[in-house]
């Protein structure tokens, strides 16, 4: 894709340069037609010397001098060579015009009005100033192209760095998810072996999503909500009757997309710190789509902090979530987590992205 973009840019540059020089070389023809006089080829030949000199100055700077001298901080040499080149070409153009008038146009010096030295100096100065402007134009175009290329490379490097960091965060997230889920299944084995067997089957379905289906940067919101529903059902197997569990998920996802496994850390945290084996407790999970493109995820749970011996992996999921949000939803999310009395409230507000076809997702 980058090669195609570069090829397209080069083609556009060639077309623009060709049109610009063609207009300059054809300008005498246009002006002579406007005056009602046709220009002879002999006279046109004399005009072509100036544009050719301008082209020499432009492309000598564009392809050689700017890269080898100016961009290597040899400014003095760059300026000196250009001054010598411009003076040489200005004098050469004057000599060419004299030669052209005498031997091509057939106008000998004796039949022409005697011109003053200031007259010749004026035309040489005019050509020199024009070539100086052409040099400046060449430098401006070259530096603009270099700046654009450097900025594009910076963006590509930043994009690759971000993707690598996201991949690293995913690689951290998958073992973390598996570790927490296996802990819950381990607790079920002693209490209810049949439920533990069902839980392992459910876990295999969840892992398929975690390991294979979520390789895209964005997933349909419906798939993410289905995963959350299955995860909550799996985690609820070990809950006692003292735990009040409420889950509200929207039926219609409106075709939106969301980053995979974005909400699981909040829900894991609720099951880990919101359930007591001896006291009444609750977990309330709610997802709501507003009238616009905003999704509000609210997780409320009773607060039973774990002791130091049972805090393995604590905080990894939440730190992972914060970093992924900053990379995937910069300026498009609000994450609040606070303890209010004896309950803990976590709320994530996201600006969602519209649905695109899977083929388009895969090509990105």
Automatic annotation (TrEMBL):
This is Signal transduction histidine kinase internal region domain-containing protein. Keywords: Membrane, Transmembrane, Transmembrane helix. It comes from the Bacteria. The chain crosses the membrane at residues 12-32, 44-65, 77-97, 117-141. PANTHER family: SENSOR HISTIDINE KINASE YPDA. One of its GO terms (molecular function) is phosphorelay sensor kinase activity. GO terms for cellular component: membrane. InterPro entries: Bact_2-comp_sensor_kinase (IPR050640), HATPase_C_sf (IPR036890), Sig_transdc_His_kin_internal (IPR010559). Residues 164-242 form the Signal transduction histidine kinase internal region domain. It comes from Alistipes indistinctus YIT 12060.
